[in-house]
Amino acid sequence: MKRLVIVSNRVPVPREGLRPGGLAVVLKDLLARKGGLWFGWNGACHPDAAHLPPEIQKAEGVEYATIGLTPAEYRNYYTGFSNSTLWPLMHSLPECIHFERRELASYRSVNERFCENLLPLLRAEDVIWIHDYHLLPLAALLRRHGVRQPIGFFLHTPFPAPDMLATAPDGGTFLRDLLKADLLGFQTADDTANFIFAASRTAGAVTVDDTTLLFEGHKVRVGTFPVEIDPQTFAATAAAAMEHEDLRRLAGSLAGRRLVFGVDRMDPTKGLDHRLAGYERLLHTYPARQRQVTFLQIAAESRTDVPSYQALRNRLEHQIGQLNAHCGQADWTPLRFLTRGSPRSTVAGYMRLADIGYITPLRDGMNLVAKEFIAAQDPENPGVLVLSRLAGAAKQLEAALLVNPLDHDGMADALERALAMSLAERRERWQACWDSIASHTALGWGLSFLDLLHKTTEA
Q1: Which residues are known to be catalytic?
Q2: Is residue 437 a contact partner of residue 420, using CB atoms and an 8 Å limit?
Q3: Distance of alpha carbon 86 from alpha carbon 77, whole angstroms
Q4: What are the Cα distances from residue 143, in Å, to 94, 179, 198, 202, 410?
Q5: Which residues have CB under 8 Å from 189's CB, separation 6+?
Q6: What are 116-174's pLDDT values in tens digits?
Q7: pTM > 0.70: yes or no
């Protein structure tokens, strides 16, 4: 039986548990079912990390092999090139891109260390699945060391248009590195098309058909695999959460007002400042809504040592203060903004309680929160999803109210439309969104990728 080896930047070792959303939740059912090895960074920094062997532990049939980073690697590989260069590049935010040559050098050396530490752990029958933008060179490094096992790569962010990709330092090299994998997976058909065009124009790959490239005598399959949630399970979690004391307190504090709800990491790609501006525009354009609504936004802090994230936090603090000062009244605070995370079950309950899910990223690979909002709703009295058309999930959730996340007037109009929407229309829109996700699962997403990887390498 073939063993699955997952490689990702961070590994959710068992003592950490699983956070809401993200890679860990999506992959946990797959590894629990198939067993195997999860390899990557353990989240720790140590001056001697580069010289320490992987730490191995097992839990529930899964083997976890993790390494640390040195403080310099953390600054240059993780905070630097991965999150100050590649992350904004992938999300088409050139104004947030920062580049230093030493950070690119560290990015490549850390990928080489991943490779060196992974090689002794591999078996002849392994299937290797690499994840995300932190590890773009890894497939090519493994091939150079003689690895012939099937290799798949999945990108959880968007893949930028070729003209945007041209701003990447060494972008052509990264394309050629990726083309050493057997199967490349992307979130949307647009991302897939962007990669195929860039690979043929910049890296010299030859297009065989809509899903196959030829590069240096090697066939590479390319496919679209929208990441999914477990909608039935999340729906049950949300319904059960309504009995929690946290939910009772929130419902009581609203005093009958309608709840607009958003939840994200505090990240420049999430469009939080524009989202707040759209909500403030609602209160000014439709003054009758004042005192009728409360907006609760959870934005857990992340990557606090990245300058663009620090700047965002400062902008938001100023914006929050102004919004509440200018629009609030003695017995009504229009915006409640939390920067600490909440338990997954509590967030599910907030979603079910909300009249509007307000999710407007500037760009997102998928955005599982949008799917979770739909799953959390009471089918008899569902809320309305206001969703950025630039989120990958918008391709599936076309019955949501889709908005341009830079158009503050448009977002205000969509919020007003959602608040005024009849029960019949809310049910119709919710049902269409639910039908688009109800038959999919995170496990099914992973199995579909691995099934195509198997067919690709066995052909």
Answers
A1: 156, 364
A2: no
A3: 11
A4: 32, 11, 22, 21, 49
A5: 224, 395
A6: 999 999 999 999 999 999 999 999 999 999 999 999 999 999 999 988 888 888 888 99
A7: yes
